């Protein structure tokens, strides 16, 4: 088993080490290796992500990723978009859990407004929104597979009343859901976001397009205490990539106060993906126990450091897997 570790930029360098130590404890026979990508590498070498980096990521069984900074420079190409496309990580899973609710947001990860097809000019810039039947079918089938193992209920988030490309996405998702025997409804993404925040217990699996899934899941950070609590997975047919939803947060980088929970829960998702469901559950339980004991970073109202929280979670994991 080979696990690629990518710390990236900013707080990625602070939240990934605690998550890595937990994985190393639970996967003592695995090989962990580092891959450097991101803005820091770009500043130093002129390349944020090389072909060799992509090959290294493809050679892993799973990837734990921190965060990367994307500067406002037209010559800088998004590292995340490249990795998602080259590894064909088409399904972005963003769980949102709390008291009385358990939502899984399934975001199409390779098309939409994050297609990367852009023309940037001084007076006019355009980004091409790409929605295909094949891409919509694929993400809908994945979402239906998850729904069958949960409440067999699916909501298709869209804006088909304004964006006509969303008609294809919406109708394709409904067709797949009918074929799969999954109960499905549709909702316009703006009204859906508000209703999820007001009535989260009413929702189970939500499938939507790329940018809508990004915005919806970020907004759902309100339900959990902030982006520092939200993990995610990027899944393809052959590769799997796990990362906290938050970005590189340069405003707090280097201060030792970044919340490592999202990175640690991402590591738990990695474990579950590899079939280690008991270990994954143990990590999630350890996080819950640590937070309940009051060991929290400042974003949650606590006074503990990134390493304090990480070590507290690790100690609880050790108590189960000693």
What is the spatial order of strands in the main beta sheet?
2-1-3-12-11-4-5-10-8-9
The level of helicity is 40-55%
Classified by CATH, the class of the largest domain is Alpha Beta
Estimate the global geometry from the Cα principal axes: globular
Structure summary, number of beta strands: 12
Number of helices: 12
For the largest beta-sheet, the strand count, sense and barrel status come to: 10 strands, mixed
Domains, number: 2
CATH architecture of the largest domain: 3-Layer(aba) Sandwich
Please provide a written account of the structure:
- With about 325 residues, the chain is α/β, with parallel strands linked by helices.
- It has two domains: about 1-90 and about 235-320, Isopropylmalate Dehydrogenase; about 90-225, Isopropylmalate Dehydrogenase (3-Layer(aba) Sandwich).
- Helix content is about 45%, strand content about 20%.
- It has helices at about 10-25, 40-45, 50-60, 80-85, 135-150, 165-180, 190-200, 210-220, 220-225, 260-275, 275-290, 305-320; strands at about 1-10, 30-35, 60-65, 90-100, 100-110, 120, 125, 155-160, 185-190, 205-210, 230-235, 240-245.
- The strands form two sheets. The chain has a ten-stranded mixed sheet with strand order 2-1-3-12-11-4-5-10-8-9, sandwiched between helices. It has a two-stranded antiparallel sheet with strand order 6-7.
- The longest helix has 16 residues, at about 135-150.
